[in-house]
Design a protein that fits this description.
The protein is of the alpha/beta class. Helix content is 45%, strand content 16%.
Length: 224
């Protein structure tokens, strides 16, 4: 095991899983939280001793607090946290959409980010660590009627505010804003778009940057 630890939510597939693999390959311990215990265990088996699978829901603050405690017990601390868990809407639109689905969207895309920050911040403060949030290209421009995009506008605004707060004690906050990525987020494959590994590389750049550099935002777009 190394002396650097990354805590990741939404870690069982897509961007989260790719980031866990990339971080472990770069010498980090990875604490991986997601609801799918089986997928997490398979990923942990693949990575080896540097991985800690943590079955739990990012919308449950108690589960996050417990996961952080287990991470610290196993690895000794947390040097970076990646609030990555998120979802989209199957039925877009304000009139056409499903208010119950909106609630789930806000719970995960907004409250899940806040809960992850709250749970990890005391440990990040000890290490002068880095908080990374998954934003979106949809959080950088207005898209007709997009409720999902509005949740990502929150993420971008919160990331900037946290960057100002965390710099007061030597910490950093980054938002990674990808355009369309070929992940299970979409029902159909998007092979000509960004790959999860592209986003993972951006996360590693943010958390491994020299302490003098605060990478506030990385905006990725597919070429096609």
């Amino acid at each position: 095991m190394t002396d650097r630890t990354l805590f990741i939510t939404g870690a069982s597939t897509g961007i989260g899983a790719a980031t866990a693999r990339a971080a472990a390959a770069a010498g980090w311990n990875v604490a991986m939280l997601a609801r799918s215990a089986d997928k997490l265990q398979d990923l942990a088996d693949e990575i080896g001793d540097a991985a800690l699978p943590l079955a739990g829901d990012a919308t449950d603050l108690g589960a996050l607090d417990d996961a952080v405690a287990r991470t610290v017990e196993r690895f000794g601390g947390i040097d970076a946290a990646f609030a990555n868990a998120g979802m989209g809407l199957k039925t877009p639109g304000t009139v056409e959409g499903d208010p119950e689905e909106w609630r789930r969207l806000v719970d995960l895309n907004v409250m899940g980010v806040l809960y992850t920050a709250r749970a990890t911040m005391p440990e990040l403060k000890k290490t002068k660590g880095t908080l990374v949030l998954t934003g979106s290209g949809a959080g950088r421009r207005h898209i007709s009627g997009s409720i999902y995009g509005a949740t990502k506008w929150f993420v971008h605004g919160y990331a900037g505010n946290m960057a100002e707060e965390m710099r007061e004690w030597g910490g950093r906050c980054s938002v990674i804003a990808p355009g369309m990525v070929d992940t299970p987020f979409f029902d159909a494959e998007k092979p000509d778009k960004l790959m999860p590994e592209d986003v993972a590389a951006a996360v590693l750049h943010a958390i491994e940057a020299h302490p003098r550099a605060s990478i506030r935002e990385i905006f990725l777009m597919p070429q096609n």
